[in-house]
Write a structure and sequence with these properties.
By secondary structure, this protein is an alpha/beta fold. It folds into two domains: 264 residues, Rossmann fold, CATH 3.40.50; 64 residues, CBS-domain (Roll), CATH 3.10.580.10. It contains 16 helices and 13 strands. It has a six-stranded mixed sheet with strand order 6-7-8-3-9-10, sandwiched between helices. The protein has a four-stranded antiparallel sheet with strand order 2-1-4-5, sandwiched between helices. A three-stranded mixed sheet has the order 11-12-13. Helix 7 packs across helix 8 and helix 15 packs across helix 16. The longest helix is centred in the middle third of the chain and has 18 residues. It is globular and about 65 Å long. It starts with a strand and ends with a helix. The model has no long low-confidence stretch (mean pLDDT 89).
Length: 337
């Protein structure tokens, strides 16, 4: 069972969205619906599944519907149609009490704007979710100090938010989300307001935390380089709809249209594409040097330049799963599909 599942989610903004949903032609474009009805289709028939422990990135340009979509997941915004399933339970059918429990214990959110309480010390900002849960003061402060150390801010617990840099404040926002030990984290462009170097540090911090905590994370971004760095899989949105879902390697190697191809143009292909991405089916009759399936092109290039023989690609168990040669590697580097 997937941890999170979206089934045909629609979100239409306007005075009568349900009527528009029922009466409109499903193939009408967003611009046509806006012109004819005055309603905005923010999310259009979105379906996908997220596995437990996966970092699933939703990306797209401004106005593509990604932030609206993530708010539908926890019903900060109610979808016009469709279902959101979390742990097999229908979130769209939950009453207020069940929804409150979901937000307190199962799903937490990290926003682009830190949203810290300026009058509270850092330790109390981090413990706010625990306070809402009814956890007594000393217990939540102890937990907050532990999480603070986890995100690299030990010693800052008694300071106020204005005494911290932007990157440090975002670490506090991340720590506040982690303090309640959620199963699922929804991250809405949490690093986009940070300077490039701090942003890179926060991305690395999130990946390091994930190695230990194994949370299910749905991460929203407009930056494709951030998406391929963080995501186990990426969903690319345009005009409220999903254009392509795949691993970073699949999307870089096989963009489905020009819109996706635009995102991939500046990607360092040698660092992203792997042997498994570009290999052909295995050839049992050929014996050649073996390479791991997750080797990048950057690792493969020295090897293919010194041999004319095909290479056998093997999985983690040593089983042959494919074959590649010099031409295939060079073609992938040159974006020859």
């Amino acid at each position: 069972m997937p941890k999170v599942e979206l089934q045909h989610i629609w979100k239409i903004f306007g005075p009568n969205p349900q009527y528009i949903f029922e009466k409109m032609k499903q193939d009408n474009s967003r611009a046509e619906i806006l012109r004819e009805t005055g309603h905005v289709v923010a999310v259009r028939d979105v379906s996908f599944e997220v596995a437990e422990g996966e970092i699933f990135v939703v990306m797209g340009l401004s106005g593509s519907g990604k932030s609206t979509l993530v708010r539908c997941l926890s019903r900060l915004i109610d979808p016009t149609a469709g279902k959101v399933m979390v742990n097999g339970k229908d979130v769209t059918a939950m009453n207020e009490d069940d929804l409150r429990e979901l937000r307190r214990h199962t799903v937490t959110m990290v926003f682009q704007r830190f949203g810290l309480f300026p009058h509270r010390r850092i330790v109390d900002n981090i413990g706010y979710g625990l306070e809402v849960q009814g956890v007594e003061r000393e217990t939540r402060r102890t937990k907050s100090r532990q999480i603070l150390e986890l995100v690299g801010l030990k010693g800052w617990e008694n300071h106020y938010p204005h005494e911290l840099s932007g990157g440090m404040q975002q670490r506090v926002g991340l720590a506040r989300a982690l303090a309640v030990d959620p199963e699922i984290m929804l991250c809405d462009e949490p690093f986009s307001a940070l300077d490039p170097l701090i942003r890179r540090d926060m991305q690395n911090e999130l990946l390091n935390l994930q190695k230990t905590l194994h949370k299910t994370i749905i991460f929203i971004t407009h930056d494709f380089l951030e998406a391929i760095k963080l995501g186990d899989r990426i969903a690319i949105m345009k005009d409220g709809a999903i254009v392509q879902i795949g691993t970073p390697q699949e999307i870089v190697a096989h963009p489905v249209n020009d819109y996706v191809r635009e995102f991939t143009q500046d990607v360092p292909r040698a660092k992203v594409l792997t042997a498994e991405t570009i290999m052909s089916p295995p050839i049992p009759t050929i014996d050649g040097e073996t390479v791991p399936h997750d080797w990048t092109l950057e690792q493969l290039i020295p090897l293919v330049l010194r041999t004319d023989q095909p290479l056998q690609v093997v999985d983690g168990t040593g089983t042959r799963i494919g074959t590649l040669d010099r031409q295939m590697v060079l073609a992938a580097m040159a974006e020859v599909q």
